[in-house]
Fold this protein.
Amino acid sequence: MRHGSLFSGIGGFDLAAEWMGWENVFHCEWNPFGQRVLHHYWPNAETFTDITKTDFTKYYGTVDIITGGFPCQPYSSAGKRLGKEDERHLWPEMLRAIREVSPRFVVGENVRGLTNWNGGMVFDEVCAELESLGYQVAPVIIPASGVGAPHKRERIWFVAYNDSERQQRNEQQTRNRLNSQNSEQWVCVCKEQGRNEIRCIDEGNCENGIFQTNEFNKNNRKRQPRMGWEKFPTQPPVCGGDDGISDKLDGITFPKWRAESIKAYGNAIVPQVAYEIFKAITKTI
């Protein structure tokens, strides 16, 4: 699967995609701190900054899934809830990117407050506009506690799927490209993790859709999904572990970047939730 992220932040969706063994093709983030984090971990992905000034048509028909936690400030109960009057109402830009790329899957994320802002107007618009592009939409509220985190952090997730004939052709092309690879280069993650109860059909074709290259596993053994929060406090003053984000940012001492890391934690998605959604998506392929 080829993945592109919008409003990428510090790469929550990108990290979940990496756990799946997917290719991170591009990311789009305007914040300089987020850009540095993204470039450090995914240097081979193309970087875009301002979504309002980016043309994504070069990726038309070549990216399988687009994700994005479009800005939540217009709908969050912690803000003024200006909604569509807020300049940070950027769902229309994400919709444009989806139209330009035409991926088979879309996963969008926002705060729960989006569902009831102005009687649910924007919530209904997101669903209707995706449906107008041919997607079947399944909105669902999933809290961080749903994957074992010791805090609620409820979010609305829009999971959309387009099963047009063109998308089916793209999927077959993707499979053909993967099958053309040397089978000896593929190692099932289930075997790497000792999950022998999951039977793999053959190298590079795992029943649960998770497979990675030997080179990927060699360079990223420490970056496997972390699903437990037992050792973390439930209310950390400045800590990334409680949200499921890497705690590597906690050691930053420069005041500017430390403040940016705290803000990044607050805006980030919980990658473990995205990971579970991605696993469910692979079962439909």
